[in-house]
Structure formats: C-alpha cells, structure tokens
Design goal:
The chain is α/β, with parallel strands linked by helices and about 700 residues long.
Length: about 700
C-alpha cells in the first residue's frame, strides 16, 4: 500500500540521498554567494534606513551627519572582510569564529562566540523576514493586518527549501539575489545620473518636515556624540552575516579556501557599493523617515493612519517615476524576496555551527545527524522554531527586533580577530627551519605580519563597536540577547559536563571485571493470557537457556487467574507459573517488586524479563491496547542487573509498515526503528497487557 506520509515527504524535500553523494552538494562561487552572502547584501535595504531613523530623533538638524556615519560603516566593513579572509585561509575546516577563538583563546571564550552566533542567527532570520514583509506592505499596504502570518509563513517556506539540501537552496535563491543586486545598482546609477544632469529625483517625503523628539531636541556635546554613535551602531546592521562564509568553507568546491576568500571579497565589494549608493541617493532625494509618522509635518489627514514607505521603496518610486512604475514594483519585489531569502544565510550557518558544537559535545548529538538530503535537518528545524516564536512575540516588527540584533555578531568579530592575532604571533615565533622544513622566506613572514596588523586593527575597531552597541542598545532590548547568550552558554557547558560524565562512567577500566559472567541467569516470562504471543515469548526465553525460567502473572481477577493456571497446566511445559497476589488490582508494582527482590537476594545474578508485545500498523490501534508494558519496562530499566527483552508478535495491520528495502539511506544512523521480523528481540511499536 502507498505510504502517504513518505510520499508527502518525498514531494516536499525530494528523494533521499546516499552518504556517498555528499560531494555533489558542494557549491561553486556563483551559488555560494547567494547562499552565504545574502544577509550582508540584503541588509543594504535597511541599514541606511536605520541610520536615518536615529538621526531624525533630533528632527532634520542632524541629517548632515549621515555621510560621515555611512563612511565609518564602510570602513568597518572593509576591515572585517579583510580580517575574515585571513580566517578562511588559516582555518579552512569550517567553524569560523568559534574554531579560531576556541583554538587560540580557550574553550570558554569559544563558547561565548558560539552562543553569541547562535542567538544572532536566530535574530538574522527574524529581522530579515520581518523587513521583507515590511517591503511587501510598502507595495501593498492592504496586507498590513497579515504581517505576523506572512512572516511565519515565510519562515516555514525557507525551512522546507533548506531541508531539500544546500545545493537546492542555492539554486532557488540565486536568481532573487542577483536580481536584487541588479535592481539596486540600476536604481542608484539612474538616480545619480539624473542628479548629475540637473533633474534630481525627489522622494514622496521630501516635502515633509520632522518634529524633533523632545528628549533629543537641541543636543550638544556628549549627548550629540551618543546620538551619532547610536546611529552608527544601527547602521552596523550592514555587517551582519559577514562571518557566514568562514563558517561554510567545507561547503565550497575545491580549492575551498581560495573559493571562499574570493566569494568574501566579491560580497564585500558589492555590499559596499550598494550601501554607498543607497545612502547617497537617500540624501539626494531627501528621504525623511521617522519611527512615529505623527512627527512628520505637512501631512494631510490623520497622521496615525499614514503608512510610511521604506527608504528603498521611496527611492524606487522617486527614481522610476512613481509607485505605479515597473521599476518600483521590480525593486520592491526583488527587495522583499531577497530580504526573506537573506534568512537563508542563517539557515546555513546555524546548522553548520550546531553540527560542530554537537561533535564537541556542547549540544545534543542529534544536531550532528544529516537528513535525507544530507542537510542538518534538526538544526534547520530548531532555528525555524526559535525564529518563528520570536516573530510571533514581537509581532514581526523590525524596529523592535533590530535592538536585539548585531550584538552577537560583534562579539564574535572581536574575539575572532583577537584570536587571529594570537594565531599569527604563534606562527611568527616559529623559528625558521626549526620544524625541519625549509626556512621561511622574508615574503612569507611579511605577509604574516601584515595579516597580524589587519586582524589587530579588526579586533580594536570591532571591540569599540561592541562597546558602542552595548552602551546604546542595551536598555532598548539588547539585554534580552545578552541574557539569551548567557543562558545558552551555561546550557552548553552543562551538556558538555553531562556527556563527559557519561563517557567517564561508561569507560572500561577493568576489562576482566566487565567480562565476568554472572553467577546465574534467571528468566521471567510475563503472562497476561495464553495465546500465540505468549508461547512465542516462552520459546524465545527457553532458547536463551537460562539457569532458571519461570512464568509470572498477577492475580487481578481470580476467575481469570484460575483459567490461566488451568490452561498453563494443559500445555504440559516444564516451566512453573508463579501467581502474584494483587488485592488493589495493581499490575506494575507487584511485578517490579518481585523482580527486584530476586536481584537483591543474589546481586551477582542477572534477571531477564521477557515481555510479549503486539505490533500494529495504525496509530489509533496503539490507543486500543493496554500500555502497561511500556510503564513496566520504564520502571525496570532503572534497576541494575535487570534485562528487559521485548518479543514482538506482528498483527495483520503491521504489514502496512514500510518494507525494509524502502527505508531511506541513513535511517539506521538517524535512529529510525528497523522493520520488525519474527523471532527477533527488540522493542515493538505497541504493547498489549503483559499481565492481568
């Protein structure tokens, strides 16, 4: 019969891939760019807007600081890109900032970076999707009431695409990313050419004034510096996702480091060009935007009902001739699409980092498992759930979410560059020829020294930005990101301690003692009634040839118990049937107490309990059969010296289960249950009552 669930799964994520096909998922640069760089490229759509939103708190008086703040952001991006090129070459195995910091600054510092990045990846999905929805609403304001549903729906769509595999997601996201780049660059060039020819386009908000926020009006001295620093920290959202390429080096085609470094350079050049162009065009067209539309002056009608378009939307309308032009809709569609797809950077970075942390035993091992399409499915689903909850809680509001953003990424930037400085110090301390190889030439050492200077500059600059971000955003919501990172750090330390403790407890210290045979093996067969499953379990228990074998039933109903005793005697087997009295009609407690008493009497004996079980094929059949065996097994598993064996009996409905030949590759590795065969001991799907 057709397995509907399996069919839907195949339609959603495609055919299962063999482990040997992993090399087919490696990426060329043209696909790696949209996969790993869509976040920093798409942040151009809102980075300029965030700078303007902060500066307009003081009205229009401080907008002349915009070029200087944008220049600082560009310089910072250049330093970070150059610094991470060094990381890509020095640590090509993937881990990015986490591997650099762990190797050079210690495990605790590495976990700080890991926790910060994991939180930031969740924020990347939330902010990118929310910003994309904002741009859709700018084009179609009637959709404003469906903001949260649209955002969560986009996260679900991204999850499905990424579950199909890295290469599949790259193909799906390549065209929108390149269309966005083309649309923005065409818009910028067209607008600046019109300005140079004396026909400067004007935005729809150019005629509006801005009433200063009373708290930020007439600022001077330190207060003005803090406002500019706050605008700078908001503009630094343009740098989010820059480190994703260093985390994903293993996903590139060979030569991996060279291709990853080239992709990072392309990303940096394109992102800087787009950011400079959008910011310049926003100043030329006199875009005026505020967090509260009622602070705009010159509005006709109800200010509260006025929906401000995003900066990108206003620029597109101004340059291409209005909100009904083809150019406007093209830019808006490409922007909305790429902002939603920018979350894909996190959908690749988060599972890769979680995989490395799982290998190092800081996260559950399930995050190391690959799915049918060789993607880290558990990590993808975990990221989607966290981002979806965040979007729901903050109602997909970009302004609210942005305050939680970029803190983690600058933490990783700073510690990573500091770790790279220590890396180069260690390399340069190596005496020429001391390792038995040819002496390093002067050019090699000069390149190392230049790399150290680049990373040192990056550490200082990103450290200053981290301080600025903390000072300007902490009380506005960034504290929540800090708390989340701290909780995650503590959780990962706890998981590692647990795994270490389990490994130490399970380690073989005295092989002879571990291999010592028990004095006797006592087998107990649980009997609820005399039927085929009971007899199969009896035969299976006898095949083990225990030193002592007895059947056990619980006298809940005296008449039924007598019938069982009579039938057992008629079988004529040489296995005694023991009846446990249960005046309060309990089943589990008498059995558990009796089995434990056998072990207490002879601690060197092993007691094996054999439980006949039904195997059914329909979910609702599980509800129709007594589940006491499950509870009984869970109680017995906590008792040392007790072995529990399930002996399955397949009912007709169990034939609905998948044939073994149709199991997906990797199913055993992922822990999916093997098909049930007769005369095989293992835990079956559902359980009939083992006793009465």
């Amino acid at each position: 019969m057709i397995n509907v669930t399996g069919l839907l799964k195949r339609l959603a994520i495609g055919r299962a891939m063999r482990s040997e096909e992993l090399h087919e998922t490696l990426l060329p640069k043209r696909l790696a760019l949209p996969i790993f760089a869509s976040d920093p490229l798409s942040s151009v759509a809102y980075a300029t807007q965030e700078i303007l939103l902060v500066l307009t708190l003081g009205g229009m008086a401080y907008l002349h600081f915009t070029p200087w703040i944008a220049a600082a952001v560009v310089a910072l991006m250049a330093v970070v890109v150059l610094s991470y090129r060094q990381v890509v070459h020095a640590y090509p195995s993937g881990g990015g900032s986490y591997e650099v910091v762990s190797h050079n600054l210690g495990d605790s510092a590495g976990l700080v970076v890991a926790a910060s990045l994991l939180v930031d990846y969740v924020m990347t999905v939330a902010v990118s999707v929310a910003s994309g929805v904002d741009n859709i609403i700018s084009a179609v304001p009637q959709l404003a009431d469906y903001r949260v549903g649209m955002a969560v729906g986009f996260v679900a769509l991204l999850t499905g695409v990424n579950l199909r595999g890295v290469r599949e997601s790259g193909r799906a996201f390549a065209a929108p990313t390149y269309l966005f780049i083309a649309g923005v660059l065409i818009m910028v060039v067209t607008g600046l050419v019109r300005y140079a020819l004396g026909h400067a386009p004007l935005s729809e908000s150019a005629g509006f004034g801005i009433t200063p926020d009373p708290r930020d009006a007439g600022l001077a001295g330190l207060a003005l510096i803090m406002l500019c620093l706050r605008a700078f920290s908001s503009g630094c959202t343009a740098l989010t996702g820059v480190e994703a390429i260093s985390n994903g080096v293993p996903a590139f085609r060979k030569p991996k480091s060279k291709n990853a470094a080239a992709t990072m350079s392309i990303m940096g050049i394109v992102a800087v060009a787009m950011f400079i162009g959008v910011t310049t065009l926003a100043l030329v067209t006199k875009v005026h935007i505020t967090e509260d539309s009622c602070r705009l002056t010159g509005l006709a009608g109800d200010c509260g009902a006025y929906t401000q378009r995003t900066v990108i939307a206003q620029l597109a309308a101004a340059v291409f001739g209005g909100e009904n032009s083809f150019g406007f809709y093209f830019v808006q569609a490409a922007t909305a699409l790429v902002l939603v797809l920018a979350a894909n950077t996190a959908f690749n970075g988060f599972p890769l980092l979680a995989d490395i942390l799982a290998q190092h035993r800081y996260l559950p091992r399930q995050l190391h498992n690959r799915g049918d399409r060789l993607a880290f499915s558990n990590g993808i689903i975990a990221l989607a759930l966290a981002a979806g909850l965040l979007l729901w809680f903050y109602k997909a509001n970009v302004t609210s979410l942005i305050h939680l953003y970029i803190l983690g990424v600058f933490t990783s930037f700073t510690l990573s560059q500091t770790g790279m400085v220590r890396h180069w110090n260690r390399e340069l301390r190596t005496e020429p020829g001391a390792d038995g190889n040819a002496a390093r030439d002067t050019d090699t050492r000069r390149r190392m020294q230049l790399a150290r200077v680049t990373n040192a500059l990056g550490a200082v600059v990103t450290g200053l930005v981290l301080v600025i971000v903390l000072a300007t955003k902490f009380t506005q919501g960034a504290w929540l990101a800090v708390v989340a990172a701290v909780v995650l750090w503590l959780m990962m330390r706890g998981i590692r301690r647990h795994y270490d403790a389990v490994a130490a407890e399970l380690a073989v210290t005295d092989p002879r003692a571990e291999l010592e045979r028990p004095s006797r093996v006592v087998a107990i067969l649980l009997v609820s009634t005399i039927h085929k499953p009971t007899l199969r379990a009896l035969a299976y228990a006898r095949a083990y040839k225990p030193d002592h074998l007895e059947a056990l039933t619980v006298a809940v109903d005296r008449e039924e118990t007598k019938a069982i005793e009579r039938q057992w005697a008629e079988l004529g087997v040489d296995v005694p049937l023991k009846v446990l009295d249960s005046p309060y009609r309990e089943i589990t407690r008498p059995v558990v107490e009796y089995v434990r008493s056998l072990h207490r009497e002879s601690p060197r004996n092993v007691v094996g309990v054999f439980i006949p079980e039904y195997v059914v094929g329909r979910w609702w059949e599980h509800l129709l059969h007594n589940q006491s065996a499950l509870w009984l097994k869970s109680r017995l598993l906590f008792t040392p010296g007790i072995m529990v064996t399930s002996v399955p009996w397949q009912l007709t409905s169990s034939s609905r289960a998948d044939h073994p030949a149709r199991r997906a590759p990797g199913a055993t590795r992922r822990g999916e249950p093997a098909p049930v065969h007769q005369h095989r001991s293992h835990s079956a799907g559902s359980t009939p009552p083992p006793t009465r």
